[in-house]
Write a structure and sequence with these properties.
Layout (H helix, E strand, L loop, with lengths): L1 E5 L7 H14 L3 E9 L6 E9 L2 E7 L19 E4 L6 H16 L3 E2 L5 E7 L5 H22 L3 H5 L36 E4 L4 E8 L4 H20 L1 H5 L6 H7 L3
Antiparallel strand pairs: 1-5, 1-6, 1-7, 2-3, 3-4, 7-9, 8-9
Length: 258
């Protein structure tokens, strides 16, 4: 997940937030804790990260430069400094417990949601998916985007990203060129990487981008559950996919057991 938030008043820099996280991870007994920074591709700013060993597993939380806070949709700089916090890949209940603890800790020291500017982006792995699956997922979002948007009530910046998108690198999945997708799209168009759900080439993930900024771990995990269950249902249940346009949002949520 990517969490775009405002840091505490006394800890405005990415490095300061990394130091706060180091303090927390030390309190958990994690070992080999390292803070790193490197030049970002974004105008010479720095990307930070903090990593540690939890048992035999090494995990990294990213604190990259986030341009959303420095350029609004109106072309003016945002006056309040914000940060993006990237979680490690989480796959089990123990990971979710740690996530809740980290977010609750950061909220206790003053982190706040970046309303109207930032969002919560949920990344889902694409392992095992074929191009036809991804095409189906994007089409499903096109069909029900208005219903989903009304349910989650995205802030202005989120709702301004209203055109579903599609982008695939030449070496992804079936090793097909992006142009090969044209024959699979009903309207014969190839969408690009701005929208409520995109293929993120950098991480090889499906990135759901329509959720608001939040520092409530339960709300963020609800976002995650919706994204996971909706995509799984689209792929596995032909009847659900075929009836999407007729279903109300309440019926969709019931089908997802949410």
């Amino acid at each position: 997940a990517e969490l775009e938030v405002y840091p505490p008043e006394r800890h405005q820099s990415q490095m300061s937030v990394a130091i706060l996280l180091r303090k927390f991870f030390q309190s958990k007994g994690f070992t080999d804790i390292t803070i790193q920074n490197e030049n970002s591709k974004n105008f010479g700013f720095h990307d930070y990260s903090i990593s540690y060993k939890r048992g035999k597993k090494r995990e990294t939380w990213g604190l990259p430069y986030e341009s959303s806070f420095h350029q609004t949709e109106f072309g003016k700089s945002e006056s309040k400094h914000g940060i993006e916090l990237n979680t490690p890949v989480f796959s089990n209940e123990e990971d979710e417990i740690l996530f809740k603890e980290v977010v609750n800790y950061l909220e206790s020291v003053g982190i706040t949601p970046a309303r109207n500017v930032g969002g919560t982006h949920i990344h889902l792995g694409t392992h095992g998916l074929k191009v036809k699956d991804l095409s189906r997922i994007f089409k499903a979002y096109i069909k029900v985007y208005d219903k989903i948007s009304a349910h989650f009530s995205p802030d202005p910046k989120r709702s301004s990203v209203s055109q579903p998108s599609l982008f695939f690198g030449k070496n992804h999945l079936d090793y097909q060129d992006p142009e090969s997708l044209l024959s699979e799209m009903d309207d014969g168009q190839l969408y690009f990487d701005q929208g409520p759900i995109i293929y993120n080439k950098k991480y090889d993930t499906l990135e759901t981008r329509l959720f608001n900024s939040s520092t409530d771990p339960e709300e963020i995990l609800y976002f995650k559950e919706f994204a996971v269950r909706f995509i799984r249902k689209i792929i596995e249940d032909d009847d659900f996919y075929d009836s999407l346009e007729e279903l109300s949002m309440n019926e969709i949520l019931k089908a997802l057991e949410l």
